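User: Round two. Same drill as before: sequence, then structure, for each protein.

Assistant: Same drill it is. First protein:
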Amino acid sequence: MIFILIYAFHINIVVYFKETVKSFVSYYETIYLYMIKIAQRIKELRLEKELTQAELGKQLGLSKKTISHYENGVILPVLETIINMCRIFDVTADYLLCLKDD
């Protein structure tokens, strides 16, 4: 009887753990997909303005490497940089952050 209760408890823990891991993975997949979308948007806007990574970096007070990291989805810009990018590209933060497509 005790063995059955322990086994049932174990099964519940395993099921809960599997669901928790799925949720966790799904959450980070979603974040990763948004980072990639934002990275593509930054590159698209930079190219529309005919700027090099170095030129954009200079306008933002950042290195070319940092701009490359943004465009490859390695890191996201901080709020101050997002605001400055919006001014340079003449777009809203919603558009830059892929919250709206127009």
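Second protein:
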Amino acid sequence: MYSTMEFTDEADRRDPTKLLKAFEKHCLGEINDVYERYVFNRRQQEPGETFGSFVGDLRRLVKSCSYKAVGVCYTRPHSAWCT
């Protein structure tokens, strides 16, 4: 896999930061913002689920949504939380 990766120049192959970014791009692929926002906005607290667990999951989901407003409260139909 490493030998097939494309870099702008050969020095980038030895740069740990650029190498890690290349592996992340290859393994993770591109994020579909529309789908990730859909998943985030559809998330509801399940019966029996603790509020802390629910908020923790929302925080995990919001990271992949590309919402730019950090430190803003996001309002949900039945709750509000802040990042």
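The longest strand covers residues 73-75.

User: Perfect.
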